[in-house]
Design a protein that fits this description.
Strand content of chain A: under 5%
Distance between the termini of chain A: 29 Å
Helix content of chain B: 55-70%
Order of helices and strands of chain A: HHHHHHHHHHH
Low-confidence stretches of chain B: none
Shape of chain B: globular
Distance between the termini of chain B: 52 Å
Oligomer: heterodimer
Radius of gyration of chain A: 18 Å
Order of helices and strands of chain B: HHHHHHHHHHEEHHH
Number of strands of chain A: 0
Radius of gyration of chain B: 21 Å
Low-confidence stretches of chain A: none
Mean pLDDT of chain B: 95
Number of domains of chain A: 1
Shape of chain A: globular
Mean pLDDT of chain A: 96
Structural class of chain B: mainly alpha
CATH superfamily of chain A: Ferritin, core subunit, four-helix bundle
Number of strands of chain B: 2
CATH topology of chain A: Ferritin
Chain lengths: ~250, ~325
Amino acid sequence: MTKYDELTEFLLLLGDSAMVQGQRLCEWCGRAPAVEEEMALMNVGLDLVGQARNWLEYAAERINDGRDADMLAFRRDERAYRNLLLVEQPNGDFAVTMVKQFLYDAWQYHLLEALTESADEQVAAIAKKSLKEVTYHLRRSSEWMERLGDGTEESHARMEAAIDTVWRFTFELHRCDAGMQALAAAGVIPQADELAQRWQTTVADVLEKSTLTMPEAARSFYLNGRDGMHSEHLGILLAEMQFLQRAYPDASW
Amino acid sequence: MYAQMVETGVKKVKGLDEMSAEERAFQEKIDAEIKIEPKNWMPDAYRKTLIRQISQHAHSEVVGMLPEGNWVTRAPTFKRKLQLMAKIQDEAGHGLYLYSAMETLGADRDEEIEKLHSGRAKYSSIFNYPTLNWADMGAVGWLVDGAAIVNQVVLQRTSYGPYSRAMIRICKEESFHQRQGYEILLHMMQHGNDAQKEMVQDAINRLWWPALMMFGPSDADSPNSAQSMAWKIKRHTNDELRQRFIDQTVPQLEFLGCTAPDPELKWNEERGHYDFGDIQWQEFYDVIAGHGPCNRERVETRRKAIDDGAWVREAAVAHAKKKKQQAAA
């Protein structure tokens, strides 16, 4: 698989993750537990797809091979996607959706907060804009964690099961590879261990308030979004999302 | 029109001299264009008719998300995906806003939603048609929202205050959706390939007649109109609004370079309006009665959403109760 420079790879991680999470939220359309949630889920999704566009526009500028953000989002194969494994997991019930959303929001929030001071001006600018939205996303998903964790017996049991379903993919939220180390050394992104610590603290705090159990740290295994080693779910998701661009490559929409 | 064939439960419109003092005062207010507000006295039939109409309208907004949800996961570019997501979000907002207006009349949202799921409450017939290609996202915006606007613009002057205000707000957003929808089609016609142009014409062919049916039966077969007009819940007849819609839409259709699936559609200089062919009313009544192409799927999807979400809503209530108890302790 083609690997780009470290920053571009990092932009793809951010953009692809927001895009895939946004796509999963689109799948909820007309199926949410209440009309208020229809609005909220679509609203969060809208923010994320907008953020994805900003990150991928910057990535496209750096890749500079004639492809724009649309081409990166709607024509790349699953092996070239760099998103977190967590966000490509199926929606499951509302508990799984909310646990995924919360774990991702906590990661985004701390990462974006640090990125607002990135040595790369464009990264800092996009992060600043996104942070406002993600601050709200995290507040909202934290509230749902608490409501559902500390709601009824059934909702509690569903939340414990949901955590069990997706927790194994969280190793990517506190991992650091050589590329990220280099970016951190250059002041472009935060130090991975500091970020991991903040994520851990937020998650532990919210889970405690929600009367939910925090599992042991997830360990990395065969799959790895950064290398395009995805679960089988991503290919299907992209097949749907990319259908028109793939079926009509010369079309203008 | 998102509310069709709303029952008034009234066989004959009363004259002022046949009314009680309360009824007469109410009707005089309406005649003087004074808005009726939630705490004002109103005839029971007026209240019930409005609940029916506003709930149909709210259900239509929510069910109307489904045909668009069919394509939101397949929108072709960032721009189109973001536009469609924003539109769907607006529709959920309209649904909420309308349910709130309905609740000012003493109706209960859950009860009205249950009526939808059990087939006792209706929603606009248009949403029982499938969306079969991407151009449908343009055609729905242009024709369906366009038809809704023609109706809703006049409903901004409807006699019930909360409904009128909801319409004013909703109309602004609907106009935006309509322009966006038209732009999707125009772009495909002007910059698209042959396959895309075929999609546009195909979408128009399928949605043209159902869009005209949105205005409801012709006046001769619209027994509830007279009372609704007297109450100024309705301000123009179905046929008037349908004609208005056709007159404003045909030039846009021509500008697209497309045709309507109606060989009789042509300008009538004498009338100053377009003539058009006969509407297949049997199809309309079949769809309204639940026999349209997607009725079953639409209602089942909505019912499943609310059933599957029951534990979520129960948990939210239980949690709020716990919090309240903790605060009191």
